[in-house]
Write a structure and sequence with these properties.
The structure holds 2 protein chains of 2 kinds. Chain A is mostly helical. Helix content of chain A is 80%, strand content 0%. Chain A has 6 helices and no strands. Chain A is elongated. In chain B, the strands form 4 sheets. In chain B, strands 3-2-1-6-5-4 form a 6-stranded antiparallel β-sheet, with helices on both faces. In chain B, helix 16 links the parallel strand 17 and strand 18. The longest helix of chain B has 82 residues. Classes of the chains: A mainly alpha, B alpha/beta.
Chain lengths: 149, 740
């Protein structure tokens, strides 16, 4: 594919992600931290995020399947997830985590389960989006171009 | 025998008479010889006798007399001339000595007599002194009794004990039969028997206070003898015994208000109690002067002691009252604090959680507006957008107002373009005004500075609110906005009686006046305009929306800007004029074009890298940890990462210059770490700077951080610029408390 076209596609795609609130300025900050010393910083952080989130989501599913739900533990997990998502700028995940936490405080099981669904959904969405983004970047790099800012 | 010169003896020597003469002479001589001997003997015995010489003479004369008489024994018969010679010599000597003695005695006998007189005199004097000694001793005893009594009376502050002790001690000292105290009743018209010595329970006799005997006692400050038969003294049934003498004395009852220096001790309104003392029955004892004095002194002391007791009682009562009030106030304060805390908690929740969904709603609705919609759908979306905008404004207003009331709102002072603010307001208001067919005119005075220092956002909010109100409440006509610099003369306005602006060198007062020709406000409603949530009830404006908060917020903003806002209106239907004055600073001579393009002062660019700065990052969340590390690594720091508080405390050493920790993660107590680190590193320069990263920057979190000894608080998420400036600030000042 044409390099310029690829770059334009990347820029548009990235802009749409911002626009649709999948990502926020925190992600931009992460990109700023990437330099010659740390060329794969963003990818590393995002991979770490994926691992962490998968683990947390599994924990949450297990915890909510219990007979007597330990809301404190659930809250702790959600707090972690919220922290992670806000650190990389996954805005929608973060927002849904906030709603989740409210239900935890109210000890509302129905609400929690709904929120868990929502969070999982958002997470998979943002994951696929980010993976698509990274794929585009790889393509550009392998074509010999540089990532536009 | 004719030539014999001797006396012719008339009687014969053997006559009896002669014999008797012989014997008498003999004995006389004997006596005369022994008297001196005795004298000498006794004088020798006595040590002191001043007249030795006289005594010797006296002795000599007596001896000679005795000799004469002895010699007389021979001269009764015939005797020779020698005997006659001896006799004569003896007689002559005797005569001489006796005469001398007689003469001397004339001198000494008065002396001797006067000795006796002096002796008598001295004896009298001694007796007198004895008597006086007795008197003094008695007085001394009395004095001692008084002191002891006083001591007893004053050693207690309880009224009853004082009085009881007085009576008991007086009874003992003076050996009284009965002692009683009559106190005036509440009405002051009677005296009631309150305390007696012997009778344990006084029955409560009362006597009217205006008896002549009582008046007599009250009018004198001395103890007065009264008759045992009068009303106050007949407390003890004396029966067949003769009652002893009775004495009564007044006891002044002093009140707190009586202690005025000038009037002491002659006070106008005085209450007295009466103390009556009775001597034992059937004794001949009389009241003696020193006893009366004792009684008077005691009465005075009792008065003082009683007043002390009264004062103490009052002060204890006042103290109890104060304690109760204190407790009540404390409770009220705690309740108020609870209320405030509840409100703050509520606000803290509202702060973030309510705004976020609002933001989502507004953003998504506006996005929805951009898509393809049917006309009904578009109308619906527009309604949603309008309502949510209103709601968002309301939330912001309420939050602002609460923060304003709290006093926690601070103005963001910066230099801004004043003209631009007005133009902006005009642009915002023009569409609505033209819909309502209102004419809006803006008039800026020529001397109004183009740039000013103040809170641009809030000033605009105020102007917008005032102008908005003008537009809202006008159906037609025109609205005029004028702005100028308030001059000194105009500052003395009758309207601004509570407001005293002080003109100065580096600030000026901006005065903005908005006049409209709308429905106006009735004069009695004007004070209510600036109160929260109060709306005027006129039907014409029932349709228009308005939470009633706008002007209240404006007033608070204006007050924060050290200004004043007021509204004048001549009545309903006659339009109204809103005026406000705020204090704005005069900016320094800066490059104006530069300011127009750079409204914000650029942040402090310290060193852009911190090579080798050893930093410790503590965060349970792996992703956050990696991001923070990335930030710091980008800035050139040497980062150590730990994932729990125990590990942090284990690893931290004085090589680490800064420690970042997550303060709001549940399960990890950032505060605990700070405290332990303070314990670990006692010397300040060894301790690393402790900074908390938190998502919550309300006052309470900040206060908690400061309390445990953290050096700074930063709000997550942290941008690169912010981290850079934070680090440079920290290293420079070692303290940072505002990095939002």
């Amino acid at each position: 594919m044409d390099l310029v076209k690829l770059q334009r596609q990347l820029v548009d795609y990235r802009d749409s992600l911002y626009h649709e609130c999948f990502l926020d300025e925190q992600f931009t900050q992460l990109q700023e931290l990437q330099d010659e010393n740390n060329p794969d910083f963003v990818v590393e952080v995002v991979s770490l995020f994926f691992e962490d989130s998968e683990r947390l989501l599994n924990e949450l599913t297990k915890a909510l399947e219990q007979q007597s739900i330990d809301f404190k533990r659930v809250d702790a997990h959600v707090h972690q997830l919220k922290g992670s998502s806000s650190s990389i700028g996954a805005q929608r995940v973060q927002k849904s985590c906030i709603a989740f936490r409210n239900y935890c405080e109210e000890q509302n099981v129905e609400g929690c389960l709904t929120c868990l669904q929502l969070v999982r959904q958002e997470y998979y969405l943002v994951k696929s989006k980010l993976e698509a983004l990274f794929k585009l970047e790889q393509q550009i790099l392998s074509a010999g171009g540089s990532i536009p800012i | 025998m004719d030539s014999c010169n001797c006396i012719e003896l008339q009687w014969p020597p053997d006559d009896l008479l002669m014999k008797y003469q012989y014997i008498s002479d003999f004995f006389i001589a004997l006596a005369y010889f022994s008297i001196p001997l005795e004298l000498i003997y006794f004088v020798k015995k006595s040590a002191v006798f001043p007249y030795r010489w006289v005594l010797v003479q006296f002795g000599a004369s007596i001896v000679l007399c005795g000799a004469t008489h002895l010699i007389n024994l021979w001269t009764s018969t015939m005797h020779s001339r020698t005997v006659a010679m001896v006799m004569t010599t003896a007689k002559v000597f005797t005569a001489v000595v006796s005469c001398i003695t007689a003469l001397l005695l004339v001198h000494i006998i008065p002396d001797l007599l006067s000795v006796k007189t002096r002796e008598l005199f001295l004896k009298n004097k001694a007796a007198e002194l004895d008597r006086e000694m007795g008197l003094i001793r008695t007085q001394e005893e009395t004095g001692r009794h008084v002191r002891m009594l006083t001591h007893e009376i004053r050693s207690t502050l309880d009224r009853h004990t004082i009085l009881k002790t007085t009576l008991v001690e007086l009874g003992r000292t003076l050996a009284l039969e009965e002692c009683a105290l009559w106190m005036p009743t509440r009405t002051g018209l009677e005296l009631q028997l309150s305390y007696t010595l012997r009778q344990q329970n006084p029955v409560g006799y009362t006597v009217p206070i205006h008896l002549p005997v009582i008046n007599q006692v009250f009018s004198s400050s001395h103890a007065v003898k009264i008759s045992p038969n009068c009303a106050v003294a007949s407390i003890h049934p004396s029966g067949k015994y003769t009652p002893g003498e009775v004495v009564a004395v007044r006891v002044p009852l002093l009140h707190l208000s009586n202690f005025q220096i000038n009037d002491w001790p002659e006070l106008s309104t005085k209450r007295y109690a009466l103390m009556v003392l009775m001597l034992p029955l059937d004794s001949a004892r009389q009241w003696r002067v020193h006893e009366l004095e004792l009684v008077e002194v005691v009465a005075d002391q009792v008065a003082v002691a009683l007043s002390h007791a009264a004062i103490l009682e009052e002060s204890m009562r006042a103290r109890d009252l104060l304690m109760e009030q204190n407790v009540a106030l404390d409770l009220a304060r705690r309740e108020a604090e609870t209320a405030i805390r509840a409100r703050n908690d509520f606000l803290a929740v509202m702060n973030h959680e309510m705004r976020t969904p609002m933001h989502a709603i507004i953003a998504l609705s506006s996005l929805l507006q951009e898509t393809e919609l049917t006309p009904e759908q578009r109308l619906m979306v527009e309604t949603i957008l309008k309502s949510s905008n209103l709601l968002s404004t309301l939330i912001n207003d309420v939050l602002d107002l609460s923060r304003l009331e709290d006093g926690s709102l601070q103005l963001d002072l910066e230099t801004f373009n004043l003209y631009a603010v007005f133009k902006e307001v005009l642009n915002l208001i023009k569409p609505i005004a033209s819909v309502k067919k209102l004419h809006v005119s803006l008039n800026l005075a020529p001397d109004l500075p183009e740039y000013a220092v103040g809170d641009e956002k809030r000033l605009m909010q105020t102007i917008l609110n005032v102008v908005g109100n003008a537009v809202k409440f006008s159906k037609d006509g025109s609205i005029s906005i004028t702005a100028f610099v308030a001059k000194a003369e105009l500052l003395r306005d009758s309207q601004t009686s509570e407001f005293f602006p002080v003109p100065g060198d580096n600030h000026f007062y901006l005065r903005v006046q908005v006049k409209d020709s709308g429905i106006g406000v009735s004069p009695q409603d004007i004070p209510k305009l600036f109160t929260k949530f109060a709306q005027t009830q006129s039907t014409a404006i029932r349709n228009s929306s308005g939470s009633g908060l706008g002007l209240a917020i404006c007033k608070r903003f204006v007050n924060l800007m050290e200004g004043h806002i007021w509204i004048e209106s001549e009545g309903l239907g006659k339009g109204c004029t809103a005026t406000f004055m705020v204090k704005l600073g005069i900016p320094e001579r800066l490059n104006e074009p530069e300011l127009a393009f750079m409204p914000k002062v650029p942040p402090n660019h310290g060193p852009t890298a911190f090579p080798g700065l050893k930093v410790l990052v503590t965060d349970e969340n792996g992703v956050s940890r990696k991001v923070t590390k990335g930030l710091l690594v980008h800035l050139g720091c040497d980062v150590t990462m730990v994932s729990s508080s125990e590990e942090c405390l284990r690893v931290v050493s004085n090589e680490h210059k800064v420690v970042f920790m997550d303060a709001c993660a549940p399960g990890m107590d950032g505060y605990e770490i700070a405290v332990r680190m303070h314990e670990k590193f006692t010397k300040r320069h060894e301790r690393p700077i402790i900074v908390a990263l938190t998502g919550n920057t309300d006052k309470v979190t900040k206060e908690n951080c400061m309390r445990v000894g953290m050096d700074g608080v930063i709000l997550k998420p942290v941008s690169l610029d912010k981290m850079r400036s934070v680090l440079s600030d920290l290293l420079e000042h070692r303290v940072l408390f505002e990095a939002i």
